[in-house]
Amino acid sequence: MRLLIALIFPWFAFFTIGRPFAGILCLILQITLIGWLPAAIWAAYAVSQFHTDQKIRRALGR
Questions:
Q1: 42, 14 in Cβ contact below 8 A?
Q2: 39 CB neighbour count, 10 Å cutoff
Q3: CA 38 and chain centroid, separation
């Protein structure tokens, strides 16, 4: 679900993973039409890293 949000509303995806400062920067980038594609790629990458970090934390926690 977060990946879909990252592609449609890149700035909002950062807020869902707890990175509000990056979300504000992404919103500024997304305001320009040309900047929307890099913002979506950046958000999708950040969400992917968030999921990887969660898996690592679960593995180390056990």
A1: no
A2: 23
A3: 12
Using CA atoms, how far residue 57 sits from 14, 35, 46, 49, in Å, is 19, 33, 16, 12
**Per-residue pLDDT tens for 4-59?**
888 899 989 999 999 999 999 999 988 887 788 899 999 999 999 999 999 999 99
The C-alpha atoms of residue 19 and residue 42 are separated, in whole angstroms, by 13
Displacement of CA 32 from its chain's centroid (Å):
18
Q: Which tokens sit at 15?
A: 């807020």
Contacts (Cβ under 8 Å, ≥6 apart) of 17? 2, 46, 47, 50
CA angle 39, 45, 49 (to 5 degrees): 145
